[in-house]
Amino acid sequence: MTKKNHSVILFSVAGILYFLAVLAGNEYLALLTKPIIIPSMFVYYFLESRMKINYLFLFSLLAFFVGDMLYLVNIDDYYIIGLFIFLTPYLVILFFLFQDFFSLLKRKVVNKFNITFLIIFFFIIYLLISILNVLEAESKQEFIYFLLFGIELALMGIFATLLYINENSRVNFFLIIAVSLFIISDIFFILNKNFFPLLVFKLGNVSSQIISYYFYTRYFIEKQNQLKQPK
Fold first, then answer.
1. In principle, which of 33, 61, 150, 192 could form an S-S bond with 201, CB 3.0–4.6 Å?
2. Could you give the maximum distance between any two Cα atoms of the chain, in Å?
3. Whole-number mean pLDDT of the chain?
4. Would you call 128 helix, strand, or coil by DSSP?
5. In a 10 Å sphere around its CB, with 0-12 CB exposed, 13-18 middle and 19+ buried, how is residue 143 labelled?
6. CA 35 – CA 46 distance, rounded (Å)
7. Cα separation, 220 vs 231, whole angstroms
8. Angle at CA of residue 63, ends 59 and 64, nearest 5°
9. pTM to 2 decimal places
10. For residues 128 and 132, what is the distance between their CA atoms, to the nearest angstrom?
11. CA pair distance 93, 97, nearest whole angstrom
């Protein structure tokens, strides 16, 4: 078994145990397992990229990790600073999406008005407006952060859909899965934190968040591999 497989297995085991820890309300198991999840993706990326690393991608993983650790220690004490930290990797992802989109424009004519894209576009905008309308933020700062999250996620969803519709590649497949999971994870987070603190919402947030890290890493590995291929 390769070292790559070991890192993915470690990620999977840690992710499953952390999910069970949240389900059982076991804080000790959560503290033991969650810090393993993203570092195992670090190792997986290093092995797959053969040390030809992208530091901006690593920075985005690091930001996710710091935000996760702050919320793991005490979500109430670090809630606002955690929101700010989680905004950062989404900006990095948007940068990668813009790169991919402009690269696509150089290769082919983009079908901007595909009916599937229009349906998803209006659904994302409707979802953003609906959540912001019913959201009862505790402060103006919190509302601004959620507004920024909504804008980032909407742009990520729109560009990921455009890329996948116009170029059905492995890169864009992993991308659209990762972005979809980011959106689902944040919706469950808002529902649990700001509307109804239910276990089902927390589990939805946890599971989609964990899986999103894998697909985000797979997306970037495939993106790098694609750039290495001769044109």
1. 192
2. 53
3. 88
4. helix
5. middle
6. 18
7. 19
8. 120
9. 0.91
10. 6
11. 6
Spatial distance between the Cα atoms of 123 and 48, rounded to a whole number of angstroms = 36
Q: Which of residues 88 and 137 earns the better pLDDT score? A: 88
Q: Given CA atoms 150, 84, 35, 89 in this order, what sign does their dihedral have?
A: positive
On whether the CB atoms of residues 179 and 156 are closer than 8 A, the answer is yes
Cα angle 62, 27, 200; round to 5: 85
**pLDDT tens track for 216-228:** 999 999 998 877 6
CA distance 144 to 217: 29
Amino acid (1-letter code) at residue 120: I
Burial of 96 (C-beta count, 10 Å sphere; 0-12/13-18/19+):
buried
- Domain map (residue ranges) of the chain: 3-228
Q: What is the DSSP letter of 139?
A: S
pLDDT over threshold 70, residue 2: no
Taking the C-alpha atoms of residue 66 and residue 73, their distance in angstroms, rounded to an integer, is 11
Q: Which of 80, 38, 81, 82 is nearest to 60 (CA)?
A: 38
Q: Which two tokens stand for residue 201?
A: 């919402």
Q: Cα(57)–Cα(63) distance, rounded to whole angstroms? A: 10
Closest CA to 24 of 228, 202, 217, 213: 202
Give CA angle at 138 (136, 142), nearest 5°: 95
Neighbours of 8 (CB within 10 A): 19
